[in-house]
């Protein structure tokens, strides 16, 4: 292999760095940089918020929550913090803070493992009760009590 000049060296290394960045971005869905995960937002009109008291999710208007393993995020300025809602079992839902306490990246629900995972490269993991299972997060995530009442999910704030 022959010698290369400085300009060629920089160009080749820049290409390599760009490729590595593209791969990392593809693996993490860019959430490490954007802090946004892949969980769909709850459709407009699918919930009612009573600030400081409760959130009522109209399950008939939330198709992502129709089957076990589905999840949605609820982002609204009337909430103390954004939420992620996951349908864990037929009649059971888990609701936690949407943001990982490590770097504020959104959490995503992993149905097969029945856990929440940070969408960032660090991948902190949390149990359904919010307790930390692993990763760099310094603490558990906040959980919210939820119950099904007359085809609606009621989340207590």
- DSSP strand tally: 12
Low-pLDDT segments: 17-29
CATH superfamily of the largest domain: Rieske [2Fe-2S] iron-sulphur domain
Indicate the proportion of strand residues: 25-35%
Biggest sheet overview: 4 strands, antiparallel
Q: Helical amount among residues, as a percent range?
A: 10-25%
Number of helices: 2
Kindly report the spatial arrangement of strands forming the biggest sheet.
1-2-12-11
Structural class: alpha+beta
Order of helices and strands: HHEEEEEEEEEEEE
Indicate the mean pLDDT. 87
* CATH architecture heading of the largest domain: 3-layer Sandwich
CATH class label of the largest domain: Mainly Beta
Distance, first to last CA? 66 Å
Task: Estimate the global geometry from the Cα principal axes.
Answer: elongated
At the fold tier of CATH, the topology name of the largest domain is: Rieske Iron-sulfur Protein
Total domain count: 2
Q: Determine Rg (CA atoms, Å).
A: 20 Å
